[in-house]
Design brief:
mainly alpha
Length: about 100
């Protein structure tokens, strides 16, 4: 299933549940805060080694992606296209690993 199809399913569920489906129906700042809270919940689940199941790391990541796709759907963002463009632009991108924390022990 493509992201576009997932977004359509999420938007149908949002409509059925009475959540906003148009820009004027949502509070973007609130949606971003809710995405952040799902990421924080995923981090906490991971810290406690709760990976699978209810309130586990995997479920919380799924919640975050669902909230992101809902926001994209409400705002008309083709996130699949955006991700593909970003992947393409990163092909030749150079990172200064000495200035980043990743990969350092």
């Amino acid at each position: 299933m493509r992201l576009e199809e997932l977004t359509s399913l999420i938007m149908a569920q949002a409509k059925a549940k009475g959540f906003g489906t148009k820009p004027n129906d949502i509070d973007v700042a609130e949606k971003i805060a809710l995405i952040h809270s799902e990421i924080s919940e995923a981090y906490e689940a991971f810290r406690h080694q709760n990976i699978k199941g209810k309130d586990g790391f995997e479920e919380e990541l799924g919640d975050a992606v669902q909230r992101i796709l809902h926001l994209c759907g409400a705002l008309g963002v083709d996130i699949e296209e955006v991700i593909l463009k970003k992947l393409n632009s990163n092909k030749n991108r150079q990172w200064d690993w000495d200035k980043m924390n990743e990969g350092k022990s």
